[in-house]
Amino acid sequence: MPPGVLADLLSAQKDWLKQQVADGTVESLYGFVGGGGMGIVDVDSHEQMHELLVSSPAFPISDFEITAIGDFEATIDAGIAALRQAASMMPGPPG
Questions:
Q1: How far apart are CA 26 and CA 15, in angstroms?
Q2: Parallel/antiparallel/unpaired status of strands 37-41 and 26-31
Q3: Which residues pair with 8 in a beta bridge?
Q4: What pLDDT does 18 receive?
Q5: From 2's CA, which of 29, 46, 61, 82 has a CA 20 to 30 Å away?
Q6: Structural domains of the chain, ranges and CATH numbers in brackets
Q7: What are residue 59's phi and psi, to 5 degrees?
């Protein structure tokens, strides 16, 4: 892709991302040293996430990796409870 076209695309992406932050869809953005970046978004469904990604001006040149996140206390407490439940079903002394 010619550098000028890529610069225009990234400029459009920057403006689009600013709008997503302004309306609360994107909670935070971070750039990676050397190019690329990541953001934390607030969506209600997989379909809404898909719609957001494909509406991005940079969609045609982007690779996405999606990782769902949750509240730290809630997720770690659920993990502890699941491990304790599994341990209670195992034969032998608790441990």
A1: 13
A2: antiparallel
A3: none
A4: 97
A5: 29
A6: 3-88 (3.30.70.1060)
A7: -50, -45
Phi, psi of 46 (to 5 degrees): -60, -40
Measure the CA–CA gap between 80 and 88, rounded to whole angstroms.
Answer: 12
Report the C-alpha dihedral over residues 23, 27, 33, 34, rounded to 10 degrees: -50
Q: How big, in percent rounded to 5, are the helix, strand and coil portions of the chain?
A: 50, 10, 35
The whole-model pTM stands at: 0.78
Q: Are 30 and 38 in contact (CB under 8 A)?
A: yes
Please report, in tens digits, the pLDDT of each residue of the chain (95 residues total): 899 999 999 999 999 999 999 999 999 999 999 989 999 999 999 999 999 999 999 999 999 999 999 999 999 999 999 999 999 999 877 66
